[in-house]
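Example (one chain per record):
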Amino acid sequence: MHVRKLQRLGTTTIVVSLPRKWVKERGLKQGDVVYIEEGIDSITLHTSNKAKQSLRVTINAELEPNPESLARLVTASYLQGYDEVRVVSQSGLLQEQIDEILAALERLPGFEVLEQTPNQLTIQGIVDPARFTVDSIIKRMQVMISAMISASIDAVIEGMPEKAAEVSRVETKVDELYFLVVRQLLLSIRNPSLAKLIGIDSVPAVTGYRMVSKSLEEIGDYALAISRESLNIKRRGRSIDREILAQIMTIGEEVSTIFGRAVNAFLTLDFKLISSVFQEIPTLSEKIVKLEAELLEKIKDPQTVISFRLVLRYISEMLDQCRIIAEVAVNKFVRIDSKICVTEVL
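Predicted structure:
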């Protein structure tokens, strides 16, 4: 590490000298331009305009011909923030390889095929990442997942296949937003200037948002699982005790409320809201355990009992994810000065 003292030049300019070895290794001389990139509590010096640089990755389909593997590599390239991806093969790309890659692109917002030839598929990011704050994407995911939870419970209570189909459609969109969040977060690490624009203020924030977005995606998956189990319940055509259905409806409404509060607590850092989430989760968990015991008494068909126990298990898993979101909210809360927590350097 090099230590330098700040020096004043004139009345308004503060200067600091650069290490001679660093300057010599890069062939810099007086009058050359360098680029300063501001970080959270640091600056990075570049000898070229890094902000204007784009990154491209080339994937050799001859060395890894498996279509599913190629799709995974393209998806990973998207998540890592590459601006352009080329999939190449001197012997020619197979149709099944192309089809698998194109199917993967449907889940990657802002990634489109720029050029396609027999030997190469070029994919490019066409959306400016600065347009989307991470908070706005999280909020959109919350709205969509809340609708999924309600629709999945309706599918169980009312036995409506169209509700299950609706959940499946929305889940695809939630996955797209999840991929977009991950891409934005990794881009923010690479580009501190972008981080400020999309609402990321520190490296710990990246970790927190990553955990929350994953929890949101998991809750969406559990809602989808509930909707699919509703089809099994309907297919058996068994008569279900109305009291059981009423309790499941109530539990579904309560988990949806807790979910909304958990996400809002994370976004607003309202500590009372954060605390309420921690207080409400155990109460609802007890209701779920109690209802599981009632299923054995009031439903005679073993397969139907299994289906309803699965529904309750998925709801319990949702609560676990809500707890994770609230825990991340607490961690985020203590990083910011408030009336409750004040930080200071010792």
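Caption: Residues 251 and 287 are 8 Å apart (CA to CA).
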